[in-house]
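> Could you send the Kinase-like domain-containing protein prediction when you get a chance?

Sure thing. Input:
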Amino acid sequence: MGSLRDNLYKIAQMNWKNKLNLLLCIASDLQIIHSHKLVHRDLHSGNILQDNLYSAYIADLGLAIQSNIASEMGSEDIYGILPYIAPEIFDKKSYVTASDIYSFGMIMWEILYGKLVYCDREFDNQLQIEICRKNLRPTIIKNTPQCYINLMKECWEKCPEDRPTAEEIYNIFTKWKDDEKILLELSESEQVLKDVLNTHDSTYIESNYRSRSLQIIFSRLSIIRISNLGKRRADKF
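Output:
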């Protein structure tokens, strides 16, 4: 059935037990990848494949790398799709398993709302600056399930050490699947989510969602920093 990206609109209409089962599949694969001390480094909805709507598996491990090797690599090795890349990577920090967790948080948002993250934005220097310097994160619509939102926000934490592990996420979804109180909280949001699906524009610029080298983007951002620093110094005198 193609990728998760291809099926987001249909997935967003599924009941919560099926959504949780889908999220469990993805979290399970990510847990396995991390248990082998690997970092995926290019996790996004286009790299999650589906045989049916209710299950999925993480694909395209071409950029996966041992975490100890990733720790020795610098910012010149940035490759992927801008919104899914953890902000610390643009600050010349190493890829770690928590960098994949940030990407997983973006996938959670897409499954919740049935559209691609930042589909209404240009993937340019300005977006990069807002994510890295102003802590921009995707918009959360009022009255969507708080337990889900809280976990998603934990995945988006600026500090990698504050994000949950893939194993913790897997255990949370496993618990939620059999917790009637949580299922009730999730189901109470279904009408709100249906309204979102009925009103949003699902069009997007396809070329934005292709993995690419982001070395040039980062270099230009560095030039902006230097220019601003020079301007501040000139203004001072």
